[in-house]
């Protein structure tokens, strides 16, 4: 495991831990408490962690003794059921006694794990321990880091299953890029590839190959007429009026896709050119959005037409065939097409001529190609560039890379399917684009699959990223992101962690949050940036072996301060520390957060 992975694994969990000044009690949890005082009327003061509570007692307890309690909650009252007799001064004996009472084997491994939970004040349920022990017993040798994963599963209330455990182990020990390269190499060395393997290799190479600005790369692909998106844009001639406004008369024969490439890749334009280019891109996006929303209907009708008129590729249709063909397009396909593409079809449906029929055949072939819709999704997500300093361009490159990465990998597959099936988007279709994850899952179920172990590990890794991507509480949100860094100028994968208060719309509040960047920069090498925002006041801690505070960074700090001012943020301080000073320790966090705030409850023991 490389050093940055260790930093990510050790530092991020510590800032994401619920602070000890918060008490969370849920039904079924087991906690350790100490009886401090006994009062009249069956009252007692009990300490759980750092919290002191007054509880009603219905059983005999002794002052200064510790007990294991099980939480039993109803609508109005929290009950603490005594699970064990008074706890001895030897922690391992106490835990062994608890395990025996819960009818579990008190092995050294089991005792050590529960001792870790108690030491870090992680409440747990009986089923959590039963399932964690089962996962331990399935492994001949469980490492300390895997104890941490089991603990995290309990803390985050994740399903205590082998699948979730393997997913978190995989995402902890390797990077996305390493998994990707292993699969690419195994596919390239194979003597023959199935259709699924060819598609997977194409997607992985597409993701791996985005070394330049993705908009520029995509626009170059658009210019290749053999690609479905390039061919489609050649047919949408109604956009030419916007294109012509950009070019001199001598250059008006330049293709629309070339103009889009210019819009994506150049920054030195006049305001009028930027406005016109934005209009062109916006109109293109509107057309593509209509096609994306109607993908299922368009694909089905296109396939149906190509099957019924199987000789269309010859360019020859009889008079009766052409009339029926035209009728089906106008009555079954047009309702799903944008006006601009309807006009394109009208031009070729005007006369039964071999050249027109061949164009119609090509259009239908394009519209049924699923890769067309993937490229359209990417174009729709692309922003235009603004500004002369290139700042917006950097932001747009990163966002484009992020959108492309999430779509190709399949990190949002389940969310897209859930949206479609729940009817939240009336325009959505059941058809979901093939992603790396989908193809890997399909390949796992094929018999005699070569390299099955690598495929399973990659699937586990992707699931691990998804499981850790977002964690929510009532008032706080945590998000972890990992994506390939080579495409945006880094030596290794990029790790980002966001956490903060929830805004009214359910997102992280930009006025009160914390962001952690774990980077391997081209020149500065391993770097971690810890950014905290409180009331739009920003403080930074930069961990880097080479970048200790000197005068040579003053001009960069000034640039950062001015850029933040433009966005109404104030830079308070920047602190520089050696990277290797970072240790696994609990970090002070400015927010009080809990999975389930408990206020004003009565307790009964």
List its salient traits.
single chain; 605 residues; alpha+beta; 7-stranded mixed β-sheet; 6-stranded mixed beta barrel; 23 helices; 17% strand; elongated
Describe it:
- The protein is of the alpha+beta class.
- Among the domains are: 4-154, no CATH class; 195-293 and 372-409, no CATH class; 295-368.
- The protein has 23 helices and 14 strands.
- It has helices spanning 3-15, 91-101, 108-119, 126-137, 144-155, 162-173, 176-189, 195-208, 214-222, 228-235, 240-244, 256-265, 271-293, 295-308, 319-333, 339-349, 354-367, 370-381, 391-409, 413-422, 436-444, 452-469, 554-566, and strands spanning 29-39, 43-48, 51-56, 66-73, 77-82, 124-125, 470-472, 476-483, 494-502, 508-521, 525-534, 537-544, 570-577, 602-604.
- The strands form 2 sheets. A 7-stranded mixed β-sheet has the order 7-8-9-10-11-12-13, sandwiched between helices.
- It is elongated.
- The relative contact order is 0.11.
- This is Flagellar hook-length control protein FliK.
Mind describing the biggest β-sheet?
7 strands, mixed
Main β-sheet, spatial strand arrangement: 7-8-9-10-11-12-13
The backbone outline, from C-alpha atoms, is: elongated
Q: Span from first to last CA?
A: 47 Å
Q: Could you tell me the radius of gyration in angstroms?
A: 30 Å
Secondary structure tally: strands? 14
Overall residue-averaged pLDDT value: 75
Strand pairing plus helix content: what structural class?
alpha+beta
Total number of helices: 23
Identify low-pLDDT runs: 211-218, 220-227, 237-257, 263-269, 385-390, 583-602
As a percent range, the share of helical residues equals 40-55%
What share of residues are in beta strands?
Answer: 15-25%
């Amino acid at each position: 495991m490389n050093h940055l992975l260790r930093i990510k694994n050790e530092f991020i969990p510590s800032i994401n831990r619920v602070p000890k000044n918060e008490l969370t009690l849920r039904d079924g949890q087991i906690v350790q408490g100490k009886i401090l005082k006994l009062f009249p009327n069956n009252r007692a003061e009990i300490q759980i962690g750092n919290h002191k509570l007054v509880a009603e007692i219905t059983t005999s307890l002794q002052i200064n003794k510790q007990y294991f309690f099980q939480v039993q909650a109803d609508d109005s009252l929290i009950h603490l059921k005594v699970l064990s007799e008074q706890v001895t001064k030897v922690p391992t004996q106490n835990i062994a006694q608890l395990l025996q009472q819960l009818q579990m084997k008190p092995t050294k491994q089991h005792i050590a794990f529960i001792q870790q939970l108690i030491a870090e004040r992680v409440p747990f349920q009986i089923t959590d321990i039963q399932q964690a022990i089962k996962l331990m017993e399935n492994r001949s040798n469980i490492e300390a880091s895997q104890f941490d994963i089991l603990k995290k599963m309990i803390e985050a209330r994740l399903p205590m299953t082998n699948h979730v455990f393997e997913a978190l182990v995989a995402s902890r020990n390797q990077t996305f890029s390493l998994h990707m390269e292993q699969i690419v190499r195994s596919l390239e060395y194979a003597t023959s590839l199935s259709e699924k393997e060819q598609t997977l290799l194409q997607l992985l190479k597409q993701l791996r190959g985005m070394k330049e600005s993705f908009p520029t790369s995509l626009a170059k692909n658009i210019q290749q007429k053999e690609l479905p998106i390039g061919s489609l844009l050649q047919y949408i001639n109604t956009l030419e009026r916007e294109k012509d406004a950009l070019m001199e008369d001598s250059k008006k024969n330049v293709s629309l896709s070339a103009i889009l490439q210019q819009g994506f890749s150049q920054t030195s334009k006049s305001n009028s050119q930027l406005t016109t280019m934005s209009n062109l891109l916006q109109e293109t996006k509107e057309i593509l959005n209509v096609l994306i929303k109607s993908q299922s209907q368009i694909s089905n009708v296109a396939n149906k037409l190509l099957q019924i008129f199987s000789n269309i590729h010859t360019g020859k249709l009889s008079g009766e065939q052409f009339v029926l063909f035209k009728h089906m397009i106008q009555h079954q396909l047009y309702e799903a097409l944008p006006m601009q593409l309807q006009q394109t079809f009208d031009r070729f449906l005007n006369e039964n001529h071999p050249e027109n029929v061949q164009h119609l055949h090509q259009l239908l072939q394009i519209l049924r190609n699923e890769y067309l819709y993937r490229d359209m999704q990417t174009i729709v997500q692309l922003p235009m560039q603004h500004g002369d300093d290139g700042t917006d361009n950097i932001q747009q490159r990163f966002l484009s890379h992020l959108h492309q990465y999430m779509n190709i990998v399949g990190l949002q597959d389940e969310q897209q399917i859930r949206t479609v099936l729940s009817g939240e988007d009336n325009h959505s279709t059941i058809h979901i684009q093939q992603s790396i994850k989908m193809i890997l899952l399909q390949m796992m179920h094929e018999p005699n699959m070569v390299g099955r172990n690598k495929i399973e590990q990659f699937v586990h890794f992707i699931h691990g990223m998804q499981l850790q991507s977002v964690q929510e509480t009532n008032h706080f949100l945590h998000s972890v992101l990992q994506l390939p860094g080579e495409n945006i100028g880094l030596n290794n994968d990029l790790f980002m962690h966001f956490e903060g208060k929830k805004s009214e719309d359910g997102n992280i509040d930009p006025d009160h949050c914390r962001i952690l960047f774990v980077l391997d920069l081209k020149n500065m090498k391993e770097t971690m940036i810890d950014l905290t925002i409180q009331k739009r006041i920003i403080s930074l801690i930069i961990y880097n072996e080479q970048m200790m505070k000197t005068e040579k960074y003053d001009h960069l700090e000034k640039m950062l301060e001015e850029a933040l001012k433009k966005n109404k943020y104030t830079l308070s301080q920047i602190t520089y520390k050696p990277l290797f000073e970072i240790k696994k320790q609990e970090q002070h966090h400015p927010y009080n957060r809990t999975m389930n705030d408990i206020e004003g409850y009565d307790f009964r023991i």
